[in-house]
Amino acid sequence: MTDTVFFRPDGGWVGDVIPFQRDGVFHLWYLFDDREVPKNGMPWHLVTTTDFVHFEDRGLAVPSGGPDAEDFNVYTGSVVIDDDGVAHLFSTAQNPTRRGADGRPLQLVAHAVSTTGLEGWVKHPELTVGAPEGYETGDWRDPFVFRDGDRWRMLVAARHSDGPERRRGTIAQLTSTDLDSWIPVEPFWDPRRYIAHECPDVFRWGEWWYLVYSEFSDAFCTRYRIARSLDGPWLAPDDDTVDARSFYAAKTVERDGRRFFVGWIATREGHADDGAWQWAGTMSTLEATQRADGTLAFHLPDEFLGSFTVPLASGVPVPARLDGADRFVQHIGDADLPDTYLLTAEFDIADGAEEVGILLRATADGEEGGAIRLEPRRHRAVFDRWPRTRTGDEQWQISGDVPFVLERPCPLPAGRHRVEVVVSGDILVAVVDRRVALSTRLYRRAGERVGVFVNGGAADLVSLEIRTRP
Is 0.85 topped by the overall pTM? Predict the structure, then answer.
């Protein structure tokens, strides 16, 4: 059993997670990416936990079928248990040497079973399901199976075989009474807007149904829709995203009426802040809270936050008035902080304030570092860093020519707001008011200080607490 902040296996990275809960234990299968070239086939590995703090790495769970098998790569899927207690595992089978009718590597839905609990999976290639007519054979993946009365439904991330190239994405649907034979029916959701809707996930919570999917487009983020029934219509909340684009492929699991979204925080190429985002990374979990109108708020699980028990001094004066009606005002701490910590700050933001925020991994003068910036006038929270990496000799020639790195919609009326930030190595996860999450990477460590600031307006720093793990 290992006590880790964000789980990552030895020798590899976490791809899409397939979460399942049984007898209070979360079974988190995931695509194990060793990033070896040439590829040697992708398997499922398994890690278990009861609290998202202590993890048991169970290692290989579903192996690659080998270079000649249809499941050389075992990609995303789901697990269910039938009425006889038999566990069924559905996954995506892909082999780059096998081409479909569209000329792309064929994707299939594979089936395995276990009669000994949730291990010892026996594959049944005779039950493999391919894309029916009308769908691209190279996009038929991420099967999600769930019970609906006396039948089973299977949702599949798919693409129509006709229509505008970048708008063929759909969530296809099949039904079954025995989990072995599947009949294609009308798509579950067919917006005709995106390239694909990966890792579909459906659950009911009270009077609402939820559809979770990861948008495979230039947005590249996990979103959700709500409906009063499985027949839709699937409505988009004002903020339909779970996190920023760096937290991807989140699928959900429930225990004791609580709903958890488990995904991965992407790495960046070259371990550089302006490197291209990469597929796979480090496992991370957010918990959802349901509001009266069916929309969801997201925060870090309390068990996770509660594992930070050792207080640290920051040297930032508290309480403190930050008054910068027409200028930038900051308070920088005088203590270097460790590799891992939880920072919790409460601000009382005055009406009309432009920017209020927290500096992280900053230099002693605040000139360099990362920042979580609350922007009440724009109703958003952003992650930023300064300075940006230059791409030329001139000051204005910088990477990511945008006024911030990542943003999240965030209501910030005048008054008190709570910000929780977990920093661990190059990972940073911020949560505002236990409703808006923003996960990212901050590779460059200009310094080890924290600070607070205001730009254009006023705010009171009411409290600031920093804790680390024993």
Answer: yes
